[in-house]
Amino acid sequence: MILYYTGTGNSACVARQIAAETGDEVLNLFEKLRAGDHTPLHADRPWVVVTPTYAWQMPRLVRDWLRQTPLTGCREIYFILTCGSSIGGAGAHLKALCRELGLDFRGCAPVVMPENYIAMFKAPGPEEARRIIAAARGSIDAAAAAIAAGRPFPERTGGKLRSSLVNGVFYRLAVKAKKFYATDACTGCGNCAAGCPMNNIRMADGRPVWGDACTHCMACICACPARAVEYGGRTRNKVRYICPEDV
């Protein structure tokens, strides 16, 4: 079974392509994460978890969900992490997580997809994004072939300490919601609230209000149809990115 979490669509795109090659069932974790649903899941085939990379590790909200959700049946698990450039030492942390959960770690594969973290970086325009997605096909196909054949992903070593340091600083200093706000262009559509995996945005008098929980997935800012959501002054005039559904 393929479990995926996505903020702006990259991991959903990869999960669908893996499923097309392996014939596996696909489950979007959004509603489970949002509702804190830890109902046990069962699969007779290996588990495949597809997520973005947040500061060189799997997002903490997915890690914490895995810790609290029984996965029954097959004990083998693969991880595929989408990223803008690198996943650092994420695999070592996932291997340790699997030991903790009693799962058989079958490896972690990176897939470079278009950048979406516009709170710090720039997202590509539509043409460049499609070029990056097309170039990712080789990595996706290689991962799907390994899963279908029951082979582990190639081992990736190093970077665990660096990932730990970067991840710790990122969550302590950067992952906060207080800089998000809606400009006068806001139409009150509520897309930002509906698309928040942390259930951290509420609508008050037709305007979004951010709470204290945030994972910096960029869903609220990138999916706003009016381009009314900003993050301090860092996102002004920047391209918003949502993965095209027809790739």
SSE blueprint:
Layout: E1 2-4, H1 10-22, E2 26-28, H2 30-35, E3 41-43, E4 47-52, H3 60-68, E5 71-73, E6 76-83, H4 90-101, E7 104-112, H5 126-135, H6 137-149, H7 160-174, E8 180-182, H8 191-194, E9 201-204, E10 207-210, H9 219-222, E11 229-231
Parallel strand pairs: 1-2, 1-4, 3-5, 4-6, 6-7
Antiparallel strand pairs: 8-11, 9-10
Helix pairs in contact: 1-6
- Please tell me the CATH architecture of the largest domain by its name: 3-Layer(aba) Sandwich
Largest sheet, in brief, is: 5 strands, parallel
Give the beta-strand count: 11
| SSE run | EHEHEEHEEHEHHHEHEEHE
Poorly predicted spans: none
Coarse shape: globular
The structural domain count equals 2
Structure, described:
- With 247 residues, the protein is α/β, with parallel strands linked by helices.
- The chain folds into two domains: 2-170, 3-Layer(aba) Sandwich (Rossmann fold); 175-231, Alpha-Beta Plaits (2-Layer Sandwich), CATH 3.30.70.
- 35% of the residues lie in helices and 20% in strands.
- The protein is built from nine helices and eleven strands.
- Strand 9 (201-204) and strand 10 form a beta hairpin.
